[in-house]
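Problem 12. The chain below contains 313 residues. Write out its predicted structure in token notation.
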Amino acid sequence: MARERWFYAHNLQRRGPVPLAQLVESVLAQSDPRATLVWRKGFADWTRAEDVPEVERKVAPFLARKEAQEAARRAPVAPSPAPPVPAHVAAPRPAPQGSSALIYGGIGAGIVVALVVGAWLVWPRPEPTMPPQLVPLGGDTTENAPAVVITAPGTGAATPRPAPTAAPVPVATPRIAVVPATPPPTPAPTAVSDRESDLPAAEVRKLRGVAAWDATRLRLTVYNGTSWRVTEISAKIFRFKGDDFTEDERPVLLLPPARNVDAGVADLLSKVAPDRKKAGLNPLDTGPFEGEAGTQPESFRFEIETARGYPPR
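Solution.
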């Protein structure tokens, strides 16, 4: 019997014909998979994917898993209950009687002190008295004058001699030194720890990849959108068998391809560069990962489940 050929709508354009497995992959790639229009020979008109039983049966498990992951990520974390108060802790003592009177009395005393200080500041003070001046009469100096009269303040003192005018001091024009602008320092690369550990789930979701099968090996080109140095990736494989996708019993371990070194070189690298003793993918970089995955299926899907690497310091 000839295999069924399906068509689907993408951006208001018809795509196909494709087999059922590829149709399911194309529908899952749409922004709203269940609303994607599909058609095959025997249908009266284009039909939504959720209204076609053979398509909905294959799309539903993936959408249910994705909705469960989104719900778990949005679920608020319940606050921890406060610990009970120990029995030996004494209850707070009641405030002593008369505390209100002490408070109001202190406020009143502060107001009085403020009024006294303000009155002292604005109270008028007498003008300072000028010291008496010695004025010679009938002579040039006090030695040859017949008498010396001490003038009272404000009663016709002798005309004071003008003070000598000081020569103007030349003011030097300041010189402005032009300092060449210093370029900003180049930021240092992010350092990573020397202890390998599992990436948090939030960081695992930042890993993106494109898969290809080569004989019995699965090759994955990964973009590392995390701040970790990733050394290994564990991916779940879904193979198309019969009319449905089947998940493998165990995930596939993917490692970056790297040449082995002898024990002496490995020990030296462990001492001088502990954060580079294992091959890995640096943050914000793209690189290959690969691992043994078995015979190549007709069609497959994959999901990055976990990852390990060196966290940022």
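Discussion. Helices lie at 20-28, 53-74, 99-122, 201-204, 263-272. Students who got a different answer should revisit the alignment rule from Section 12.3.
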